[in-house]
Amino acid sequence: MGKTIFSKIIDREIPADIVYETDNILAFRDINPQAPVHILIIPKVEIPTVREVKGSEHAALLGELFDAANELAEKEGISKEGFRLVFNCDKNGGQVVYHLHMHLLGGRQMRWPPG
Ligand code: AMP
């Protein structure tokens, strides 16, 4: 299977507006933002979908994703008013890029149910 666009961003083969990086995590602004703040937070390790996530194996990594989300929400000034974290999974979930990613969305009132 070829590299996903997110692996190419991790390897700096294509540009992105990177806002956060650690040994295990990268975060960058979504190219097609759905809110004033729309950041994608991804593990550097390749995990295609939520279905491959295992608590026994990935607990620490998931913790790092949530730490990054909280840190970025604070930095972007959306922590106090609230924000939304989303993982899309497969076709019905609306997943397009098959590299696990958490959407951090904020800066406007979110609606429910989602589209
Ligand atoms: P999903 O539908 O959950 O798979 O979300 C994929 C997201 O990746 C979409 O919100 C896209 O706008 C975003 N995206 C696709 N290509 C890029 C890129 N090169 N840089 C930043 N965001 C991207």
Please, could you describe this protein's structure?
The structure is a single chain. With 115 residues, the chain is an alpha+beta fold. The chain has one domain (5-106): HIT family, subunit A, CATH 3.30.428. The protein is 27% helix and 22% strand. The chain has 3 helices and 5 strands. The chain has helices spanning 5-10, 55-75, 90-93; strands at 18-21, 25-29, 37-43, 83-86, 102-106. Strands 1-2-3-5-4 form a 5-stranded antiparallel sheet, covered by helices on one side. A hairpin with a 3-residue loop joins strand 1 (18-21) and strand 2.
Instruction: Write the CATH homologous superfamily.
Output: HIT-like
Distance between the termini: 30 Å
Proportion of strand residues: 15-25%
Strand neighbour order, sheet with most strands: 1-2-3-5-4
Overall number of strands: 5
The CATH architecture can be given as 2-Layer Sandwich
H/E element string? HEEEHEHE
CATH fold name: HIT family, subunit A
What characterizes the major β-sheet? 5 strands, antiparallel
- What small-molecule ligands were found? adenosine monophosphate
Number of domains: 1
